[in-house]
Amino acid sequence: MAPQYAPSLRSRLPLVAFLLETIFLILFVFFVKIEQQHEQSGRESDSKLFISSYAEFQDVHVMIFMGFGFLATFLVRYGFSGSGFNVLLAAMAIQWAVLINGFLLPQRHHRREIHISMKSVIEAELCAASALVAMGAVHGKTNPVQLLLMALVEVTGFVVTQWILRTLLNADPVYSIMLLHVFGALFGVMVSWVLHREGIKPEHEKEKTDRRTGLFAMFGTLFLWMFWPSFNSALVGDYRRERGLKLTVIYGTYLSLAVSVVMAMSVSMLTSSKGKMNMVHVQSSALSGGVAIGVAMTAVHQPWIAMTIGFCAALLSALGYRYMKNHMLFAFECHDTCGVLSVHAIPGILGWFAHLFLRLASSESTIAVQFAVYHICVLLITACMSLVMGTATVTTKPPNRIHIEAMRDPNANMNPMKSQ
Amino acid sequence: MAPQYAPSLRSRLPLVAFLLETIFLILFVFFVKIEQQHEQSGRESDSKLFISSYAEFQDVHVMIFMGFGFLATFLVRYGFSGSGFNVLLAAMAIQWAVLINGFLLPQRHHRREIHISMKSVIEAELCAASALVAMGAVHGKTNPVQLLLMALVEVTGFVVTQWILRTLLNADPVYSIMLLHVFGALFGVMVSWVLHREGIKPEHEKEKTDRRTGLFAMFGTLFLWMFWPSFNSALVGDYRRERGLKLTVIYGTYLSLAVSVVMAMSVSMLTSSKGKMNMVHVQSSALSGGVAIGVAMTAVHQPWIAMTIGFCAALLSALGYRYMKNHMLFAFECHDTCGVLSVHAIPGILGWFAHLFLRLASSESTIAVQFAVYHICVLLITACMSLVMGTATVTTKPPNRIHIEAMRDPNANMNPMKSQ
Amino acid sequence: MAPQYAPSLRSRLPLVAFLLETIFLILFVFFVKIEQQHEQSGRESDSKLFISSYAEFQDVHVMIFMGFGFLATFLVRYGFSGSGFNVLLAAMAIQWAVLINGFLLPQRHHRREIHISMKSVIEAELCAASALVAMGAVHGKTNPVQLLLMALVEVTGFVVTQWILRTLLNADPVYSIMLLHVFGALFGVMVSWVLHREGIKPEHEKEKTDRRTGLFAMFGTLFLWMFWPSFNSALVGDYRRERGLKLTVIYGTYLSLAVSVVMAMSVSMLTSSKGKMNMVHVQSSALSGGVAIGVAMTAVHQPWIAMTIGFCAALLSALGYRYMKNHMLFAFECHDTCGVLSVHAIPGILGWFAHLFLRLASSESTIAVQFAVYHICVLLITACMSLVMGTATVTTKPPNRIHIEAMRDPNANMNPMKSQ
């Protein structure tokens, strides 16, 4: 049974979606054009670039809508509506990301207009992925309208962070966008923590899983797992001088994921009192190798380094999912429904450390110190922005806007922000 | 429980399939060859064309077998056998479409033989898609043998219509093949209407949906939704002068679908008395943006126009699905199981209007009038052919061929054509 | 309910996996590098090769993890853990295959190191496919640790066979690797037969199927079915002189599969006493066309030959699945859970015969005899190696290593090798 909201909310979500969609449409009328690749240049390589980009875009597209959509179906109560609602959120987040990306991070030749290209669409999908990661932490604690607005705020925050990193620190776009996991996870956990303080117990009944829906979640996990090499390599340039890097990223991600899925299963069985594989743990931690290698990828040149990163990421992630989640709940009163902290934040930060270590090992001392300072600043800015934006998302919402009488049955009350 | 047919039918379907398959095989022996791309020309661009086409072909392939196959699983009674039977129908329809396409619409250099190429296979799959759309209207009202024969007649009718349009009106192949939605939907509805007149009530029990199978239908919907840009762009040429058009079609379809999924959900919630998302409505109407833009695509050059088309298509389609289906049943005694009229015919005609309007707006008055006449003729011929063929399909079948004692239990009788 | 193993086993599987993974990692440290395509040559064609290979690799990747993973879910008891365990097995088999392939079958320029490239990864995935085929015969008769070790032995045996064929007979790599179905199936059946002799009745309860999990199995089947053209063509070279062959393989596989799915359904309905489609039969036999054409593909140049091969393969496979499985059980006391003998071995040998016949028909008599001797040797070596390795796998395992008290309930005992 899906959560039932009060009639006031039921009629509010479609109106909000309708209104936002109309606003997006008007913004598109004035600012967005389709890039005419054939007009700019008749270069032979253009069409090759297109072919390759389109296949990678499709892989990322499948991950966003199929992968994330069905990953959350292990929660019995979020199976049907969850996968549908994921599509709504992602579709709106992508449109907003195209706009906000175009405004804040314009491509070189187009100052006035936003040009839709494979690159801009893939970037928009990665921003949407960041929002979907954040959603994982608050599943079951918010109503759909809140989720929708939160997704748009998250995308805005992430793009603003990108803008700061690129403007202040001249950061590499590919590297900074891969921090989407860290940003999304910290943002989501922060929102969850602020919501929690307002005095409601997490409803564990909502974390119930089911063997049947588990197979659907397995689908989502596998789609994410299989296409992750495309996810990491999608924005690594296709030009010949970067072709080697692209291949290295693909093979590295592939190997890292192969190791992390083996480790995730091993750790899950070892830490279970009955020696059974907990598929929810596995489904989450199997992906940690891809997250970690994504942050470290430009510095990884050997297969064994990629595998070691996958090894450590899965170890930390599986142990974190198993033990840290409950500690978080009791120590910090922070409830993290899908364990995004273990699945996205910890492996992301591990990948960041690996990146730092690999660069320091291969550089001279002067450059190494410079890089270390720059590298630490990038993470700090990302983390601060995500925590600040996460807190701001909850607290700046005017109470009368979110005063929604959400209820499942007359006696229970699931809305954490209800003012009574 | 799947419908149980009388033993006479049970042994008839495999025999019919076996016989048809043997006939196809013999026709392939005499007429079909595999195109030897490397012999014709050593052009470098050939291999690039192949690479791009193969990826798009795979996307279309997934849509036909996975998308359409699982879309119909929201009907509880059609889950298991439905997805299997869809594969049988599509596999036979494709083989037949390769043959009939090759006979009626030969490619330039091959008058005597049919050459299998990526283009011919993709065209065959689009014809099969047209047949699968028509099936949607009659699910639960026909037996498998009837469905199989109907699919082959539908493909024949669609290819004949293509031939008329290209011969009489010199129509653009890409544009005329995109009317497959209109043709399929009208054909299916017509068959359903003629079957209905013979005096049987549609069994609403067969429209029962289930939350569990709903997730499978979600899979089918998502596969269709995600790969629709490839579906629309597959036949738009890969040569450099058309590259810009191909990109425009891909981005346009992508944006149109993103808007239509948001609108489909909003309208579904708004029109529901309880404010709930009806996933069957959503799954159907979310695709309407792709149908509409498919017909209009060669005239759409701005993202916002694509989005507006998606917006209107989803609005009309969702309202149509919600309100028109029952009116159709009572007013015209026409039952449309999967609502193909709202999902394929109405958005298709909307796209046709958009195409007309956009061309008129951008042309001089003389050319505009010429185009309008041509454009109206194309739609009229397509609609007439589909309605005539649909009617003919049912009435020309000799009664003794379709006199099948189909029954589910001794008292109920599901076969609309039973002569008793 | 998944089978419950004794605590000793529960803690053993993760330790074995952990140990093996560590060994693999150490071997990767010393021997494996990522191929730097851009350093070797700046040729324009390289990037094109990459683009095409990556898309095909993704198709094969989806088949291994999604296709094989969900194919086995028609067994009710293997749904949840089966698809998860399949990922574990495949991920380890691939890593091991990369290593053993690199040691035994080094690529030209790299005698000392193993270079990871698209080709080496695709070859490793095909070796893993061979192991997954073998698993099909022993599902439900072994514990996870045994399955894992068996998979690694199978991969080793298959690569050693490849090495023998290429060294002794100078066999074509593409042709010899396509015998993976024959090797895997015979290996699996042999293991199953040896296990059986030790005196345990196959538990038919484990073969129970369910309509609900049937839809998941349908997913697995469809993913295998749809992407099989990529599976067969993945290793056929991309260079211009082989482009024609690659296209022929793709179209041939496509047509063969289209015919075999129709025939599988027809035969399944005809041989059923109630005229119903047995989806388990269909799911298995629909793929036989792809297996058969895979072995014969380099000799097939006409579409109708491909279709005839698919026709015969599905006929034999469906009849074999229907009638032979039980005969095998009673006559040879060999139980084959997923019917791999009918699905992989028989179509594979049929394809081998078709290959022989087609070559003999098109060659002069002297060359024909030479080819026949060579061709027969290839099959005999493959079959002998698989049978010997299969037997050796079971018998060489020290009893104390596999003495595992596996039990599902206190009275039942599922472990065939228990020494009591």
List the defining traits of the structure above:
homotrimer; 420 residues; mainly alpha; 16 helices; 74% helix; globular; disordered N terminus
Q: What is the helix content of chain A?
A: over 70%
Query: Uncertain spans of chain A, ≥5 residues at pLDDT below 50?
Result: 1-5, 38-44, 398-420
- Strand % of chain A is under 5%
Structural class of chain A: mainly alpha
* Strand adjacency order, main sheet of chain A: 1-2
Count of helical stretches of chain A: 16
Span from first to last CA of chain A?
26 Å
Rounded Rg of chain A: 21 Å
Question: How many strands of chain A?
Answer: 2
Mean pLDDT of chain A, to the nearest integer, reads 78
The outline of chain A comes out as globular
Q: Secondary-structure element sequence of chain A?
A: HEHHHEHHHHHHHHHHHH
Please, what is the oligomeric state? homotrimer
